[in-house]
Every structure is written in structure tokens, then in C-alpha cells.
Amino acid sequence: MIKKLKLKNFRNFENSEFLFWKQKNFIIWENWKGKTNILEALSLLSTQSLNNIDFNDLVGFHSDTFFIEAEKYNWDIMSISYNKTDSKKIYTFNKKKTLKSKIKTKINKTVIFTPITMNMMYLSPSLRRDFLDQILLNTFDLYSKVLKEYKNILKSRNKTLKAISEWKINIKELDFWDEKYIYICEIVYNYRFWLKSFLEKNISQIKKYFWDKINKVDFIYKSKIKNNIKNDIKNYLIENRQRDIILSKTNIWPHIDDFDILLDWKSIINFASRWETKSSIIELKFLEINFIEEHTKQKPILLIDDLLSEIDEKHKNMILNELNWYQIFITSIRDQYENENIIFL
Q1: How confident is the model at residue 32 (pLDDT cuts 50, 70, 90)?
Q2: Could you give the 3-state DSSP secondary structure of residue 338?
Q3: Do 135 and 263 fall within a single domain?
Q4: Which of 43, 119, 206, 237 is least enclosed by beta carbons within 10 angstroms?
């Protein structure tokens, strides 16, 4: 848990320090005053950027560098400094230089709630895939390397398909990349299906938010995999090789998968009300917390950015009441929270 945060030349904070409680911390002020920047700094310490902002855009207006330092309740201190002149990043742990990967192991994982999270089921399937991948990235340190390798192999296979379609290379060149693609897909799916099994097993917890009006809840992972990962991928690549060559694109496997939730056999993507969808997504986020905690043996830190103003009182209470045992950082424009740590900007 984080006790203190120092920011120097980070976005709109020239030299600021904040003290936090072990549970709920509300960051209160009007919009466009920098509330989210505090959450961004906290998320960077866990190496998961809140909004994926380029480091150059995080440096204060009149500076070339920024500095973030966090002190935990166990007295450990970690920091990130960045100089945009040479794009140099320096990570320290207890005042000694270290690697980014080491910092990642020294701080609790973060789980992020944002308004776009509440629209995940209405928007592009890529958001839902990103949701699954982010849980795995947050839980398993090796998954970052696996996902990077997958993307590189996919890119190389697509380049090979294009070269074949343009008669630049022989079709047999594709055999090499097919073999590598099958290998890395199998690893990605082993992780994905681990999470899939957890969600399938626990998704029925959503029912408690519907006061027994829903009898059955199912998590449905949509994929071409039917029986055996390796064989299914291999057979599909063989059967669809000519199509892939014509399109110069790999049209199968993790990067096009999707998921849905069924409430009494009805898809929340196509049939659910806003209330049912929001309740389901909030439960998915709770299950994300449970999954990370189960596999890392640590309670994650929760970052809730401008979400409470976007949802009704019942959903707001669902979040605040369920998460009493976690350290939470919440941005809001309203000061209506009693007996909590309130930070006014």
C-alpha cells in the first residue's frame, strides 16, 4: 500500500506531495484540474499506464524532466525519473537504481476502473480482448513477453503472406512462420483459457445483483478453438492458407477472439439493459481483482477515475461497499464522502 506520493514537474504538478490512507482516498476537484494525473503517476509505478500517454507528454510545461516517488507503508521507496532530452528513464528502489521489471515486483498490481470500462460490452471487441490481456499482464509477469512475441510473429506472418501474394517469395516460406505461429498461439491460449476457466466458474456471482431475477449466468469465450489448440490452429491455417494469402492477413486466433455474458441465455451485448450490462461489467472487474489476488497473493491497488459521476447510486454503492478491504484512489468532482481521506487539489 502507498503511503506518500511526490510529484515534480509531472503534468500540472510542479512540486507536490500527497498522503494516503490504507483504504479509500478521494481526490476531489473540478474537471481539468489534474485529478487523473495523480492516478496516472500511481499507475506508472506498477508499469501499467492509466491512459497510455507518451512519457514526453507527461513532462511539465516548463521542464525537460519529471520525477515520481512513492513511499509504501512498509517504508520501501520507489521512483521513476524521465528526461525527454535523451528519452532516458531511471527507476530506483530504496534510492538505488534498478530495472523497470524489478520495480514491477515491488509494488502491488493495479486494477483500473474508468467510464470506458462501463461501455466495454457496447464497443469494439478489441476492448474486450484488451480487458482479458490486461488481466493476464497484471497477473503473470511472463505474459508481457509472450504477448510481444505473439504480435511480432503475427506481423512477420502477415508480411510473408503479402510477399507471397505479390509473387516475391515462394509459398513454402510460409511453413516456417506457420510453425512459429502455432507454437506461440498455443502459449497465449494456455494463459487465456486459464482466465476463461476462472471466469466461467465464478461469473454466476453476478446473480446477487439481480435479486434472484436472473437464474443462469454464463461467460462465453468466442474462438475457433474446439478441441485441441495445436491441431485446431494447424488445420485452420492449412484450410485457409489461400484466403490468407489473397488478403495478406492472418484471419484467425487470439487477435480476433471475443467474449460475451449470457443472462438467462440472452447476450448482454445484444439484449441486456444498461443496468444489467453495468452490473455485469462491475462484477467482471471484481473478478479481475479476485483473479489477480489469487495468483499473486497480494491485494491489488484500485484506481477509479471519474467513474462514480457516470453511474447511478446503486452501482456506486456496489463498488464502494464491495471493495472495503483494498487501497482505493478515486477521482471525483463531488465532496460527499464522510470519514474518508479527502484530497482537494
Answers
A1: low
A2: coil
A3: yes
A4: 119
